[in-house]
Amino acid sequence: MSTQTPDTETESEAEQPSSKPHHERRLAEKRERAETKEAERAAAAQDIKGETVELKVFRFDPEIEGKEEPRFDSFTIPFEKGMTVLDALIYARDQYDSSLTFRHSCRQAVCGSDAFFINGRQQLGCQTQMADLDWPVRVEPLPHQDVVKDLVVEMDHFYDQMEAVDPFFDPDDLPEGELEEQRQSPENRENIKLSTRCIWCGACMSSCNIAAGDNKYLGPAAINKAYRFYMDEREGEQKRQERLEIIEQEHGVWRCQTQFSCTNVCPKDIPLTEHIQELKREAVKQNLKFW
Amino acid sequence: MSQSYDRGLIEDFGRWREFTAGMWAWVFHKFTGWVLIGYLFTHIAVLSTSLQGAETFNSTIQGLESLALVRLLEVGLLAVAVFHILNGIRLLFVDLGVGLESQDKSFYASLVLTGVIVVASVPTFVSGAF
């Protein structure tokens, strides 16, 4: 503040080595600021009372110089009862590093945006309790998907595969009246109930070894989607046939080698392998002819 | 989205510690399958010595069987074959959609059964070699 007299002295002192370029002085100030900030942060971390947990987070940002190389950052998070991995990540972002990037939305395992690779397993951040994990907790982006930044992965391929199986309802005949319902028997509903739970989080696709090696493979989620409509008794005969043709291709159901990885990681407990196997049997039944 | 980072193959076999039962079953099934194919060729090679007469065949077999290493390899071959058979039966049930919830237990069962059968066969295979 140049209007204040005491400041003029310090100002002149600072400007004393004016032979030094202006820019260097600014850099030095910046460094100093960063150091004090760092110290404050360290002090804040030490101030945390009670139990703390160490969170190791995968960091990568191709657009910032010096951050192109992937690395792990550690954050000290105050532990609270009932804390999820997502809560911890949000704390780290809000308190320590606002550039920490990850997708999240509903925080209740419905939106499917926060699937991470937590301690070596694909899990939803919001569904995983910190207390259930081994500490320090290591959070990485989903494997087998390209990392865009930090914990954000490229999901385009996954969505393409989901759409490849025509995930929509297409009955042959519509009921008479405009407000008439299209009824489904309770038994049939039971059959497809679990498959309707999918939240498109991509954990299954990420865990699948075959999907990693074969980019054309539809993947567990897409096949499950196909199962949901194929097994629905209201599905039109024409569409049923078309859908079967999509899933019985070389890169469809037959790529599944029953490793059960997808079934193990699915946050909604969908028996994915069972559904894939059922569709395999359907495909065989359609094509086997004894003559 | 200027570029994205691909973490490469390390994601797969670098993470073998995190493999689950179904994954190990798949790895072992592949491995034993390739070993059995490899064995098939040596099997044909040894058997085809009989084309040069009974004498050659007998001496080849006797020569091979007198080697302790071959006896040990035979035990290994039995282990590989038994596991492949048992896991094959397991996969058959998986294909039929039977007992998918206990697929990990059936994998462990086939491992244990393989172990038992192999240990029980050791005296038969190794007797007289050492």
From TrEMBL, chain A:
Named cofactor requirement(s): [2Fe-2S] cluster; [4Fe-4S] cluster; [3Fe-4S] cluster
Q: What is this protein called?
A: Succinate dehydrogenase iron-sulfur subunit
Q: Give the source's domain of life in one word.
A: Archaea
Q: Which UniProt keywords apply?
A: 2Fe-2S, 4Fe-4S, Iron, Iron-sulfur, Metal-binding, Oxidoreductase
PANTHER family per record: SUCCINATE DEHYDROGENASE [UBIQUINONE] IRON-SULFUR SUBUNIT, MITOCHONDRIAL, SUCCINATE DEHYDROGENASE IRON-SULFUR PROTEIN
NCBIfam families attached to this UniProt entry = dhsB, PRK05950.1
Any one GO MF term held by the record is: 4 iron, 4 sulfur cluster binding
Question: Does the keyword Aminoacyl-tRNA synthetase belong to this entry?
Answer: no
Give the record's family classification: Belongs to the succinate dehydrogenase/fumarate reductase iron-sulfur protein family.
Single GO biological process annotation from the record: tricarboxylic acid cycle
Q: Which gene encodes it?
A: sdhB
Show where the 4Fe-4S ferredoxin-type domain sits: 196-270
Under the heading Gene3D superfamilies, the entry gives: 3.10.20.30, Alpha-helical ferredoxin
Protein's pathway:
Carbohydrate metabolism; tricarboxylic acid cycle
Annotated ranges, domain Succinate dehydogenase/fumarate reductase N-terminal? 55-159
Task: Note the InterPro entries from the entry.
Answer: 2Fe-2S_ferredoxin-like_sf, 2Fe-2S_ferredoxin-type, 4Fe4S_Fe-S-bd, Beta-grasp_dom_sf, Helical_ferredxn, SDH/FRD_Iron-Sulfur, Succ_DH/fum_Rdtase_Fe-S, Succ_DH/fum_Rdtase_N
Which EC number(s) does the record attach to this protein? 1.3.5.1
| UniProt source species | Halobacterium bonnevillei
Specify residue ranges for compositional bias: Basic and acidic residues: 26-41
Disordered: annotated segments? 1-46
From TrEMBL, chain B:
Compartment(s) where it occurs, according to its Swiss-Prot or TrEMBL record:
Membrane
Q: Report which residue ranges the record marks as coiled coil.
A: none
Q: Which branch of life, at top level?
A: Archaea
Primary residence:
membrane
User: Which InterPro entries does the protein's record reference?
Assistant: SdhC_prok (IPR039023), SQR/QFR_C/D (IPR034804), Succ_DH_cytb556 (IPR014314), SuccDH_FuR_B_TM-su (IPR000701)
Q: Which GO terms describe its cellular component?
A: membrane
Bilayer-spanning residue ranges: 23-47, 68-86, 106-126
**Molecular function in Gene Ontology:** electron transfer activity; metal ion binding
Instruction: Give one Pfam family.
Output: Sdh_cyt
Instruction: For this entry, list what GO says about its biological process.
Output: tricarboxylic acid cycle
User: Is Metal-binding among this UniProt entry's keywords?
Assistant: yes
The answer to keyword Transmembrane helix applying to this record is yes
Swiss-Prot/TrEMBL keywords: Heme, Iron, Membrane, Metal-binding, Transmembrane, Transmembrane helix
Q: This protein is called what?
A: Succinate dehydrogenase, cytochrome b556 subunit
Say which species the protein is native to.
Answer: Halobacterium bonnevillei
